[in-house]
Amino acid sequence: MANRRGTPPITANAALPAAADTHGPNAEQALAQYRQRAAWYDLELLPFEPIRHKAVERLALSAGQTVIDVGCGTGLSLPQLAAGVGSSGLVVGVEPSAEMLAHASAKLSRADASVQLVLARADAVDDCALPVADAMLMHFTHDVLRDPVAVQALMRHVRPGGRVVSAGLQWAPLWAPMANLFVWSAALYSTTCLEGLNAPWDSLRPYLDDLQVEPLWAGAIYIATGRRNHRPA
Ligand SMILES: C[S@@+](CC[C@H](N)C(=O)[O-])C[C@H]1O[C@@H](n2cnc3c(N)ncnc32)[C@H](O)[C@@H]1O
Predict the structure, then answer these.
(1) What total number of domains does the chain contain?
(2) Is residue 47 part of a domain?
(3) Is 195 inside any structural domain?
(4) What is the CATH number of the domain that holds 224?
(5) Best of 100, 117, 141 to mutate for ligand 1, by most ligand atoms within 8 A of CB?
(6) Atom of ligand 1 nearest to the CA of 137
(7) Which residue, 18, 189, 6, is CA-closest to 96?
């Protein structure tokens, strides 16, 4: 299943079902958003790189582990994840935008571990023969967190005790209006659903033990870290 570095390992998932409801995330709108952004995405994300670095550190990866990068986008997290699991490990990037995934594929020659890229939405991972991983990263994937079907499917792919780290935007405290202006504009630009920005990680809470939430950037950004519990998903 794993593809060695240098090969373009994109697995097309035939079934990309339509979005479930109109109040939560909108899958078609997200595809359009990231089709437009793919070419410039890496430049736009430069200011956020220290957050990515910290979020991947929170996974505490070790050699030989399997880690899933949900909504891996252009693959900016892949090199650090690959370094964390070493050449005996496996990194699986799941991403529904073919345009974003093409950029991820182009980065693979710089990764050390086996890396597999899967073209799929998070709610469809059960159809993709995804492994049960030791760790999972959800870096700036608010739409995924706000889709209960996706969260449930993803949690079936983390072993009990495995680390789950999510990072992203959240509403800052009321005393920080400029931070909230930033959250509002960034969320409109990068998500299709503003619902749940007060506590984006709360959809993970039922599935995680020891959930810790670290606020950054005057509370406008969070990194949530927990360990998968034994609750069936
Ligand atoms: C802000 S980008 C983050 C990309 C990457 N995680 C990073 O940190 O650079 C959000 C990504 O989530 C992906 N996405 C949106 N809806 C998704 C879904 N339902 N399942 C999986 N990924 C999704 C988008 O295509 C996009 O690549």
Answers:
(1) 1
(2) yes
(3) yes
(4) 3.40.50.150
(5) 141
(6) 6
(7) 18
Residue 8 lies in a domain: no
Instruction: Report pLDDT digits (tens) over 36-45.
Output: 999 999 999 9
pTM above 0.90, yes or no: yes
C-alpha of residue 64 to centroid of ligand 1, in Å = 25
Ligand 1 center to 142 CA (angstroms): 8
> Tokens for 11?
């697995």
Cα dihedral 159, 163, 168, 171 sign: positive
Residue 16 forms part of a structural domain: no
Provide the domain limits for residue 206.
22-228
pLDDT in tens, 9-42: 555 443 444 444 457 899 999 999 999 999 999 9
Q: What DSSP string runs through 62-95?
A: -TT-EEEEET-TT-TTHHHHHHHH-TTSEEEEEE
Q: Which residues lie below 8 Å from residue 104, measured CB to CB, with a gap of 6+?
A: 72, 73, 74, 75, 78, 93, 95, 117
